[in-house]
Every structure is written in structure tokens, then in C-alpha cells.
Write a structure and sequence with these properties.
The protein is mainly alpha-helical. The chain has 16 helices and no strands. α1 runs antiparallel to α11 and α2 packs antiparallel against α10. The longest helix is centred in the C-terminal third of the chain and has 35 residues.
Length: about 400
């Protein structure tokens, strides 16, 4: 007899877990960076339109397929008789296995910065070369990767209701409260209003096809579309739950956190580092924000709270990525959750440790001229995920 599939105990459990999946590092540092690069309010406007149309349709589609079949993406495609599109099922299952190792690398960086704030050493984080020296260290990045991966493993091995749902119910509301607090605090500083205007007022003279492409890529990344997570979480959703309403609430929460992230970072950078600092890209959070916090009263406390927020966001997303992979392994190979989780953490460390050292001792390995982290990010987000989402759209049609 087939073992009964575990489920979320309530509608709010699904909403918070799915929102935890969607809300992650992409919201906290990637969204503000892209908003800054592609015209502030112009990018924000474009993203919201795409999220409410294409994004919502794909969110509902993937969740519905997961709930209807009650299986992982591979089996879901097979059950629905989509032989010609079966690559979509495999991509949905493989993508999270490739993303979670390098995601844990960045999660490890966040753990390191939070640790420095907790021990009262935030002053060293303001040094211009601190971040580059840290990621080039032959030991430290790998150590903090392991710390973050183990935290993720502990939650996933507990299962759906006792692990993922319970943690999400605690972390997601705290995440929203902290984001609002830091946003208000930052907007009270002189010069921040200029950044606020840049961020929320569209300037359509800066609109281009690249604005659409960037916003579309952020939508896939942020909403966890095309990576099997929504199939898995949909399969855990009880039939009595109003799926469309639940998905709407997930999307609202994800967009709110992305908006608040921009509200936290962009005005603060205008106020303390100048507009040119917005070009720091992925390093904006790790290089510029400690300087911002250092210039504030209670900056050590505010900085610690900020990186705690980022850790919450990173952890909930890493949990969903690992859970999706664990569910696939359990069902494809008929093994226990414990064995599947152990297999995943071994894979995460085996792939993640070399990636974490890709800025230092393994920096000479540069596929397509990219660092290992950038390469895996490019392959999964720019190549595999759009194909995966296209297969889902064709399956629905």
C-alpha cells in the first residue's frame, strides 16, 4: 500500500511555507540592485505588472498540478500523460538540486556577517576589502556554508508539519515586522527621501527591453517558478483549501517583502553612501549596508537585526529548495525522509564547498568566464527555469 502523503495542517501553513519559499536572498539584495540599475520606479512598475499577470498564472498552474497529482514534478508529468513534455518534470526536479548548494554559499556569508554583529565586531565589516578577503579565504566560506546547510537540514528532516510549516509560521511574521521597522528607521535619515522618490516614481524615459527581461528574470527567481517547489508544496495542500486565494496571498507577501527590501536599501544608500554606490550589485548588501549601519545610532543593533532578517529569508527559501529535492528522492527511489535528507546534504556539501571556494583557491576554475557561483546561477536561472516554466504552460494548454 502506498504511504499516505504528508500535508500542511492548515491553509495558513501552506501560505507561510510557500511565501517562505518565494521570499529569499533574491528579494533582499537582488531586487533592490535590479531596481537601482533599471530605473528605480520603472523597474518596480514593470515587475508588479508581470507578477500580477504571468507570475500569478504560473503560480496557480504549478500549484494546481501538484495538488491534482499529489506527486513530485516527474510523476506529475507522467500521470498527466505528457510524454513529449517530460523534460519539464525532470527540469523541475533537477533545478532545486543545483540551486540549493550555491544558495547555501550565500546563506553562509549571511551567517558570517550576523556572527560578527552578534559578537560586537561590526566595525571590521566596514573595511573596503573585508568582504573580498573573506570570500577568498581558503577555509572560512566553506565553514559557514556547512553551518547554513546544517540549519536547513535540521528543519527539513523534521518533515512538513513539524518542520517546514512550524518554522515558517514563526519566521515569516517576524521577517515582515523587522523589514517594516528598518524601512521606517532608514526613511527618517536626511537624504533618504531622494532615494525614495527614485525608487517609487517611474521614469519611463529609462524603460527598455532589458527592463522587461530583468524584471521577468527576477519574477522567476523570486516567486520560485519553474523549480518544482510549487509542485511539491501544492501536493501537500489539502483539497478544501481555496487555492487561488491562497496563491494571491503568497504573491502579495512576496511582492511586499521585495518592495520593503528596496525601501530598506535604496533610500539608505542615497543617504549614506551616495547614488553611485547603487552600482555595487550583489555586493551592495555586504559592502555598503554595514557602512550605512555604522553611521547610525544603535547601528550595531540595527545591523544585527538586518542580517537576522536576511538569514530568515535565506533559510526559508533554502528549506523549500531542499524539501522539494527530498520529496523527489523519497518518491522516485522509495526511501525514507531521513535517507533522502542525508543524500541531499551530502550533495549540497559536495557541490557547495567547491563553489564557496570559487573566489579563492578554486578561482582558476571559470566555466564560460564566470565564477562557479555565477555559472550555476546562470545555468539554472537563465537557461533551465524558463524552459521548465514553458513546459508547464504547454502542459496546461
Amino acid at each position: 500500500m502506498e504511504k499516505k502523503r504528508t500535508q500542511f495542517s492548515s491553509k495558513i501553513g501552506f501560505i507561510l511555507a510557500a511565501a517562505g519559499s518565494a521570499v529569499g536572498l533574491g528579494n533582499i539584495w537582488r531586487f533592490p540592485y535590479l531596481a537601482a540599475k533599471y530605473g528605480g520606479g520603472t523597474f518596480l512598475f514593470t515587475y508588479v505588472i508581470l507578477a500580477l499577470t504571468v507570475g500569478f498564472a504560473l503560480l496557480v498552474s504549478e500549484t494546481a498540478l501538484g495538488r491534482k497529482t499529489g506527486n513530485n514534478p516527474i510523476k506529475a508529468y507522467k500521470i498527466l500523460g505528457a510524454k513529449k513534455l517530460k523534460i519539464g518534470g525532470w527540469l523541475n526536479s533537477i533545478i532545486p538540486m543545483l540551486i540549493v548548494p550555491y544558495y547555501c554559499v550565500v546563506g553562509g556569508w549571511v551567517c558570517k556577517y550576523l556572527f560578527e554583529y552578534l559578537r560586537g565586531s561590526s566595525q571590521i565589516l566596514t573595511q573596503d576589502t573585508y568582504f573580498s578577503n573573506f570570500i577568498a579565504n581558503p577555509i572560512s566560506p566553506a565553514f559557514w556554508l556547512v553551518v547554513f546547510a546544517v540549519l536547513t537540514f535540521i528543519v527539513v528532516i523534521k518533515g512538513v508539519e513539524k518542520g517546514i510549516e512550524k518554522v515558517s509560521k514563526i519566521l515569516m511574521p517576524i521577517l515582515v515586522v523587522i523589514a517594516i521597522f528598518i524601512s521606517i528607521y532608514g526613511l527618517m535619515t536626511p537624504g533618504a527621501i531622494e532615494g525614495l522618490k527614485y525608487y517609487i516614481i517611474p521614469d519611463f524615459s529609462k524603460f527598455s527591453i532589458m527592463t522587461v527581461i530583468a524584471a521577468m528574470g527576477q519574477m522567476f527567481y523570486s516567486l520560485s517558478i519553474g523549480m518544482g517547489i510549487l509542485f511539491t508544496y501544492g501536493s501537500y495542500m489539502k483539497k478544501v483549501v481555496d487555492m487561488e486565494k491562497a496563491i494571491s496571498q503568497v504573491e502579495i507577501m512576496d511582492t511586499l517583502i521585495a518592495f520593503l527590501a528596496g525601501l530598506m536599501i535604496i533610500p539608505a544608500v542615497f543617504a549614506f553612501s551616495g547614488k553611485d554606490s547603487l552600482n555595487a550589485g550583489a555586493s551592495l548588501m555586504f559592502i555598503t549596508m554595514p557602512k550605512v549601519f555604522n553611521s547610525l545610532q544603535l547601528g550595531g543593533f540595527i545591523g544585527g537585526v538586518f542580517f537576522l532578517l536576511v538569514l530568515f529569508a535565506a533559510l526559508t527559501s533554502a528549506i523549500s529548495l531542499m524539501e522539494c529535492s527530498v520529496a523527489t528522492l523519497m518518491e522516485q527511489f522509495h526511501i525514507s525522509r531521513k535517507k533522502a535528507a542525508l543524500a541531499m546534504i551530502i550533495e549540497m556539501l559536495a557541490l557547495g564547498i567547491p563553489i564557496s571556494l570559487g573566489y579563492g583557491v578554486l578561482g582558476w576554475i571559470q566555466p564560460l568566464g564566470m565564477t562557479l557561483l555565477d555559472f550555476f546561477d546562470f545555468v539554472t536561472n537563465s537557461c533551465m527555469m524558463p524552459i521548465s516554466a514553458l513546459c508547464t504552460a504547454l502542459l496546461i494548454i
